[in-house]
Design brief:
By secondary structure, the chain is an alpha+beta fold. It has a domain of 48 residues. It is flat, with a radius of gyration of 17 Å. It has one helix and three strands, in the order αβββ. It has a three-stranded antiparallel beta sheet with strand order 1-2-3, with no helix packed on it.
């Protein structure tokens, strides 16, 4: 609670992040594997690019828009 209040005034420092993730599973929405490695801040949930060569967090990553879910029409 206190951390979220401080983030409102000072912003998130992105100190606590996940281990670098590299998705490689093919899905119908994305037939080519996406090999962009990224980390996620555990405090605010933002995604950041990750460079394995320099082992540093990069710019904020904008996730691709998800496909809209089509609901079946029942009559």
């Amino acid at each position: 609670m206190l951390q979220s209040v401080l983030n409102v005034f000072f912003g998130c420092g992105h100190q606590r992040t996940t281990f670098p993730l590299t998705p490689g599973r093919r899905t119908p929405a994305a037939p080519a594997p996406t090999s962009a490695t990224y980390v996620v801040c555990l405090d605010c949930g933002k995604e950041f690019a990750y460079d394995w060569k320099s082992m540093r967090v990069g710019e904020q990553r904008v996730p691709p828009p998800s496909a809209p879910q089509v609901q079946p029409l029942y009559r």
